[in-house]
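Z., the sequence and structure:
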Amino acid sequence: MPQDSKNLAMLCHLLGLLTNFLGPLILWLVKKDDDAFVDEQGKEALNFQITLVLAYIVGTITSFICVGFILLAVAGIADIVFSIMACVAASKGEHYRYPVAIRLVK
């Protein structure tokens, strides 16, 4: 597997930490037809970030009854941990599947 493919897949996962779903979405839309690995990993990163947006919305709404603060903390930690794990896997050319992502983009 070319190093460029690995680097772009890593970037998809890391952009999620900085830009939420916008970075992975833009990179995936630009590169999905050029590289199968970037296409697959871009969809994974995008699905995970969309799932996090939903968790953040639910957490924000339920924070008025104090439960949401826990959900917001768990979602934030999951974002960091799973994105780093995905980045490391992509750097090795391995396919990574986020364990808690809702598969909206197929």
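The chain has a mean pLDDT of 93. DSSP finds four helices and no strands in the chain.

Let me know what you think.
H.
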